[in-house]
Amino acid sequence: MATTKSWIKAARLRTLPLALSGILAGSGLAWFYGTFSGLVSALAIVTATLLQVFSNFANDYGDFQKGTDNRHRVGPVRTMQGGEINKTEMKRGMFTVGLLSLLFGVWLVYEGTWHKSKIAFAAFIGFGILSLLAAYFYTAGKKSYGYIGLGDLSVFLFFGLLPVLGTFYLNAARLETLSILPALSLGFFGTGVLNLNNMRDIENDRRSKKITLASRMGENLSRMYHAGLIIFGWGAAILFTAIEHRSLWQWLFLLSLPLFVRDLVQIARIREARQLDPFLKRLSLSTLLFTILFGAGLILS
Predict the structure, then answer these.
(1) Which of 45, 180, 185, 199 is most buried by a 10 A CB count?
(2) Could you tell me the pTM of the whole model?
């Protein structure tokens, strides 16, 4: 029987900062534009956390079923790979967490849209179901899109555009055109985390016939692509702040820039794929810090 420790391991807590960053950014933007709702933002945080855990369970399940999690894999040993959680237990875990995320998601969408727009309510319910399906079919199922090079696009959408703009809309019942710029920043940074993961696993993914952008581009182009993601992410945030400037507090997020620059320099010098693993967690935490400072700047301004 799977232990609590094994379930915590399968939940991959180090991925949660990235999952929450989009929600925090959307909430900060809602505060900035005077439309913040504490209940909506709290429900969005709970829903996003549950959805990320469901995604991690499904990823563990899918990669194990396809044989990608094997002795050649560079990253940490997954729970199904190590025999800590069996197939039946993981299916139950996915069902339980998926159901909870759906229930909290419906509550969230009800609070954010029901009394303002029934059309928006239906649309966001659709987005929620799409998010669950996307989380599952990333690596699980016979036609998982994470195995045909669409992972980067998925992360860009589900860690950037949808959480930031979705959270903002559920708070405000409208969208601000310029809010797409911080959403782009989070999308680029989230894709950067995935790219690091795929750079680390290039050789094993090729052996397992898992197609990723990194396995297609190779090591050198993947590094250039990664640098571009980080640079464009920062460019979008700086552009938003310059256009919507109200106070010097809005530049508070620049305090996190040295962390991004340091990691880019170190990643450029790494020659062994195994050494990339710590940078996944570091970029996730740097993104969270960036988001907290960005949000704090919006609130203080």
Answers:
(1) 185
(2) 0.91
CATH number at residue 140: 1.10.600
* Of 292, 212, 269, nearest in space to 18 by CA: 292
Quick one: 35 exposed, middle or buried, by C-beta within 10 A (0-12, 13-18, 19+)? Answer: middle
For residue 15, give its domain range: 4-300
CA 139 to CA 202: how far, in whole Å?
16
DSSP string, 4-39: HHHHHHHHTGGGHHHHHHHHHHHHHHHHHTT---HH
Name beta bridge partners: 211: 148
| Total structural domains within the chain | 1
Coil vs helix vs strand at 210: coil
pLDDT of residue 75: 58
Beta bridge mates, 148: 211
Residue 29 vs residues 49, 163, 248, 296: alpha-carbon distances, Å: 20, 12, 16, 10
Helix (H, G, I), strand (E, B) or coil at 73: coil
